[in-house]
Amino acid sequence: MMRPVKVAGLGTFVPPRVMTNEDLEKLVETSSDWIVQRTGIKERHIAEKGVGTSDIAEPAARDAMAMAGITADQLGFIVVGTTTPDTIFPSTACLLQAKIGAKHAWGYDLGAACSGFTYALSTAYAMVATGSCDHALAVGADVMSSIIDYTDRTTCILFGDGAGAVVLSVAEPDEPHIIDFCHEIDGAGGPSLCMPAGGSRLPASHETVDQRMHFVKQDGSAVFKFAVRKTEEISRKLLERNNVTGSDLDLFVSHQANRRIIDAAAERLGMEPSKVVINLERFGNTTAGTIPLALGDARADGRLKKGDLVLLTSVGAGFTVGSVLLRWGC
Ligand code: UT7
Question: 84: which of 53, 132, 172, 289 is 20 to 30 A away, CA to CA?
Fold first, then answer.
């Protein structure tokens, strides 16, 4: 039998250094007006050189555990959704486990790009729901600046660095809990958003470095169209099978890639703008970090409260598509 699972704690972290649109105007041929109009982004946080994803995940994880009122040794499982692991191996989950001292946890990294958090949440949910552990840590974190080409104006304006973590705990039946999730992948979309080199097919070489193949490459308009269509589709599918409409929701928290994607999907789903969280103007696209950062802001400004009915939706490289419906638990 599946046990109810609640979000017991949330933590977020962004590195302190801010890169504004004006800073980017000095690096590439762009303008702050263009960036704001086309994306909604005004600034993003960028890690210092040498800072890895586990470094920004650690404070987020510690805050999530503090809110949940648990200590690291109570965690049974850690999953880190990330596209920018500190190293290909060991996994960032192992590095994080050692940093926080989660001596009874096992875990691994999960590669789902911008769906890293929704997929990590669902994976951790399954571990707790099936009784494998009572407390699990799901992290979405990326140091995107480590794989961004700051000579490519079509991508460098979009991304930032950030991390978020939730503790999931076994719940009493009457406590607000995770209700359902629905995910899809569509590998045919792979070439539209990828980092061509650095894996087994094209290991690092002088050539791959010279050809700038260790950076994010994107067909922006293909990703844009897919994201608008799928954000709506997956959200609708999950809502319908739970007999919920857009107007029943207290909050819609979508992956933060482009304001126009979120606005279009929210409108098609019939959601009032006041219920749609948008904070990409301050953080840009932090890949797996966007949804927890948006949840953190909504909680801080009083828009997200215990018991609220919340829909999380993401679309990312792969393509990966994800949606989670839950009653917020903390
Ligand atoms: O997390 C999932 C991953 N990513 C996304 O979801 C992003 C999806 N895509 C997008 O957000 C948008 O496609 C972009 C913001 C990347 C681009 O916006 P767009 O409205 O699709 O613009 P575009 O690619 O059609 O480019 C329009 C023009 C082009 O010039 P030409 O060919 O019309 O002369 C670009 O070269 O804008 C030019 N352009 C820029 N101009 C100033 C592209 N980037 C910039 C820039 N500054 N940074």
Answer: 132
Per residue of the chain (330 residues), what is the pLDDT tens digit?
899 999 999 999 999 999 999 999 999 999 999 999 999 999 999 999 999 999 999 999 999 999 999 999 999 999 999 999 999 999 999 999 999 999 999 999 999 999 999 999 999 999 999 999 999 999 999 999 999 999 999 999 999 999 999 999 999 999 999 999 999 999 999 999 999 999 999 999 999 999 999 999 999 999 999 999 999 999 999 999 999 999 999 999 999 999 999 999 999 999 999 999 999 999 999 999 999 999 999 999 999 999 999 999 999 999 999 999 999 999
Give dist(CA 62, CA 60) in Å, integer: 6
Name the residue at shortest CA distance from atom 4 of ligand 1.
257
Q: Are residues 160 and 125 in the same domain?
A: yes
Confirm or reject: Cβ of 157 under 6 Å from ligand 1. yes
Query: Which of 170, 187, 212 is the endpoint of a domain?
Result: 170
Domains contained in the chain, number? 2
Helices (H), the chain: 21-25, 32-39, 53-68, 92-100, 116-129, 153-156, 206-210, 220-241, 259-268, 280-283, 290-300
Residues annotated catalytic, as ranges: 114, 255, 285
> Does the beta carbon of 265 lie inside 6 Å of ligand 1?
no
Same domain for 64 and 102? yes
Please, is 196 exposed, middle or buried when counting C-beta atoms within 10 Å of its C-beta (0-12, 13-18, 19+)?
middle
Residue 59, domain extent = 5-170
**Where does a domain end: 117, 151, 170?**
170
What is the 41 CA–ligand 1 centroid distance (Å)? 13
Strand partners, 128: none
Q: Is the CB of 91 under 6 A from ligand 1?
A: no
Q: Does residue 183 sit in the same domain as residue 228? A: yes
Asked if residue 110 and residue 204 are part of one domain, the reply reads no
CB 262 near ligand 1, within 6 Å: no
Q: Write the residue with the smallest CA distance to atom 16 of ligand 1.
A: 220
Query: Atom of ligand 1 at shortest distance to CA of 315?
Result: 2
